[in-house]
């Protein structure tokens, strides 16, 4: 299975509409891939908080339309990254979309862990409540978005739901690039799964982006890593490698679930 990660540059001097057209043509150019992935909030920029409300779209808005068309034109499975969704009740979400090679939407994932602590996304957006997996012909994807990468329990939940390929759409800052690489490898090793993590290039909301999209195999080996600028990273994945790794080194079977805390029940 060939996967292409589109590390698109997100800069404020390009309009959202112009970037949408450009993203669609980058997807269409990946006809030789089976799976194409875009990063987090590429229409507006993950750190462009002040533009979130103005650029919010309904689920089936312009980004949905452009990406459905691009997936069908390229004939690829498309993880279209995320966009700012305005739900019917007015709540904003950081929502990722996945399309089939026929251009049908097969999944929508609302980011579970919102970034920003007491500002930005954390206060402006609602939190997703559902783990999302997507069964492809060769593998099952588990979906995550950026800050989710720091929460191993989400990934373990995805693996328990059948995920073999963990996709992380991100807008990760250069300042914490070392965490990005380390966490992507950790999620791959502990879950014995592929990790396909795609970030943005450029600078938005005054935050320089790390780029350095990365693909890690189920043994923790880095199969490819992009540089800092706009780039398409293409890698070959072998879906059998996940099953083989889990059989040959069956650490996932040694989990000890349901242990009680030694402090539980003690008077305090
Ligand atoms: N958009 C994000 O979720 C950023 C996450 C981040 O910067 C970090 O976890 O560090």
Would you kindly provide a written description of the structure presented here, covering whatever features stand out?
With 268 residues, the chain is of the alpha/beta class. It has one domain (2-252): Nitrilase/N-carbamoyl-D-aminoacid amidohydrolase (4-Layer Sandwich), CATH 3.60.110. Helices cover 25% and strands 26% of the residues. The protein is built from seven helices and 14 strands. It has helices at residues 16-28, 52-55, 62-74, 121-124, 152-160, 177-191, 239-248, and strands spanning 2-7, 35-37, 77-86, 92-99, 105-110, 133-135, 140-145, 165-169, 194-198, 203-204, 207-208, 214-216, 222-225, 231-236. The strands form three sheets. A six-stranded mixed sheet has the order 5-4-3-2-1-14. The protein has a six-stranded mixed sheet with strand order 6-7-8-9-12-13, covered by helices on one side. The chain has a two-stranded antiparallel sheet with strand order 10-11. Strand 3 and strand 4 (92-99) form a beta hairpin. The termini are far apart. The mean pLDDT is 97. The ligand NC(=O)CCC(=O)C(=O)O binds at residues 40, 46, 115, 146-147, 150, 171-173, 176, 179.
**Helix percent band:** 25-40%
Strand count, sense and closure of the main sheet? Answer: 6 strands, mixed
CATH C-level = Alpha Beta
The set of bound ligands, ions and cofactors reads: the ligand NC(=O)CCC(=O)C(=O)O
Fraction of residues in β-strands:
25-35%
What class would the helix/strand composition place it in? Answer: alpha/beta
In CATH, the topology is named Nitrilase/N-carbamoyl-D-aminoacid amidohydrolase
Shape assignment: globular
What order do the helices and strands follow? EHEHHEEEHEEHEHEEEEEEH
Count of distinct structural domains: 1
Level-2 CATH architecture: 4-Layer Sandwich
What is the strand arrangement across the widest sheet? Answer: 5-4-3-2-1-14
User: Taking Cα atoms only, what radius of gyration do you get, to the nearest Å?
Assistant: 18 Å
CATH superfamily: Carbon-nitrogen hydrolase
Q: Would you tell me the overall average pLDDT?
A: 97
InterPro entries: C-N_Hydrolase, C-N_Hydrolase_sf, UPF0012_CS
Keywords: Hydrolase
GO molecular function: hydrolase activity
Family: Belongs to the carbon-nitrogen hydrolase superfamily. NIT1/NIT2 family.
């Amino acid at each position: 299975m060939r996967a292409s990660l589109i590390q698109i540059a997100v800069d404020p001097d390009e309009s959202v509409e112009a970037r949408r057209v450009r993203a669609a043509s980058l997807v269409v150019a990946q006809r030789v891939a089976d799976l194409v992935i875009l990063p987090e909030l590429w229409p507006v920029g993950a750190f462009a908080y002040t533009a979130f409300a103005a650029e919010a779209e309904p689920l089936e808005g312009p980004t949905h339309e452009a990406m459905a068309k691009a997936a069908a034109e390229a004939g690829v499975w498309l993880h279209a990254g995320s966009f700012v969704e305005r739900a019917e009740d007015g709540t904003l979400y950081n929502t990722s979309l996945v399309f089939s090679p026929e251009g049908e939407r097969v999944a929508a994932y609302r980011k579970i862990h919102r970034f920003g602590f007491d500002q930005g996304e954390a206060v402006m957006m609602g939190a997703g409540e559902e783990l999302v997996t997507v069964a492809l012909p060769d593998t099952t994807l588990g979906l995550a978005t950026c800050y989710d990468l720091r929460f191993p329990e989400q990934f373990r939940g995805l693996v328990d739901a059948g995920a073999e390929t963990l996709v992380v759409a991100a807008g990760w800052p250069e300042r914490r690039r070392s965490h990005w690489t380390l966490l992507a490898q950790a999620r791959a090793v502990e879950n014995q799964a592929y990790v396909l993590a795609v970030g943005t290039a450029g600078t938005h909301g005054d935050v320089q982006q790390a780029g350095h999209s990365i693909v890690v195999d189920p043994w923790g080996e880095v199969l490819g890593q992009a540089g800092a600028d706009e780039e398409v990273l293409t890698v070959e994945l072998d879906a059998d490698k996940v099953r083989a790794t889990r059989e040959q080194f069956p650490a996932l079977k040694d989990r000890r679930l349901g242990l009680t805390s030694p402090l539980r029940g003690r008077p305090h």
